[in-house]
Amino acid sequence: MKKFFIVIVAVMMTTVGALAQIPSNVQEVMDKCNAKMSSYNSGAGFVLDGTLKMKVSILTLKGPIKMYLKDDKSFNIITLAAMGEDVLKTEMGFDGQQKWVYTTSFDDKKDTLVITKTTSSKNEFGMKSDYDKDYKKAKMKEVGRYYEITFTEPRKKDLPKKSKIKVDKESYLMREYSVEQKMGMFTGTMTITVTKITKGCNDKWVNLDMNRYKNAVVVRK
Question: What 8-state DSSP symbol labels residue 205?
């Protein structure tokens, strides 16, 4: 059963992509959001705390996510549970020279660390704020303290069919982002809700530290 959950998670992870152009009011909010988010990532970087929720039909996986971001470097720690049981624990990072994925085993096997040499890697869970480039349509409404913007009609086939973000009206920080994608008979959604954004990211988090993975089986590519 856990293997089934992990397969579902892996499929949903591949649906995260770039998003967003459109009406002038949407463009104005997006420009301000992009400027605000960029200010957090310039030089010192930032740390994001939040929750990650994935849903396909009646199956829901949910848990904490923590991101460390600095320029093009990133490090994510994710734990997902279903029906009260942890089904995925993983760490993913990119330091400019290599990317790595550490996965905790739930089948009495050894944990694994896969390291791939590369100078380019996209953070599949990271926030984007230039969502005005990849969709043909967008609509915005005000929901409490947020602007809620929904993007539809992707310009490329590999983009999610629908993406949605929530932007704080006062700070213009992004507080939630989600994607929706057709998966066979079902429609899958992935939503990240931001609970805290902290300026400043220590370099140790966005560089591979083998001491964190002493007991893992290491695979290098």
Answer: G
C-beta separation of 91 from 104 below 8 A: no
Listed residue (142, 128, 104, 98) closest to 116, CA to CA: 98
The more confidently predicted of residues 189 and 131 is: 189
pTM equals 0.80
Residue 29: what residue type?
Answer: V
Band (196; pLDDT cuts 50, 70, 90): very high
Q: What does the alpha-carbon distance between residue 26 and residue 104 come to, in Å, rounded to a whole number? A: 41
Q: What is the mean pLDDT of residues 183-194?
A: 83
Residue found by looking up tokens 């005005």 in the block: 132
Strands annotated E in 129-200: 135-143, 146-154, 162-168, 174-183, 186-199
Which token pair is 114? 């896969």
Higher pLDDT, 113 or 183: 113
Q: What percent of the chain has pLDDT over 70?
A: 88
Rounded-to-integer distance, Cα 55 and Cα 97, Å: 33
Residue 70 CB: number of other CB atoms within 10 A? 22
Evaluate whether 152 touches 137 at the Cβ level (below 8 Å): yes
Q: Measured between alpha carbons, how far is 121 from 40 in angstroms, rounded to an integer?
A: 20
53 Cβ contact partners less than 8 Å away, ≥ 6 residues apart: 60, 61, 62, 189, 190, 191, 192, 193
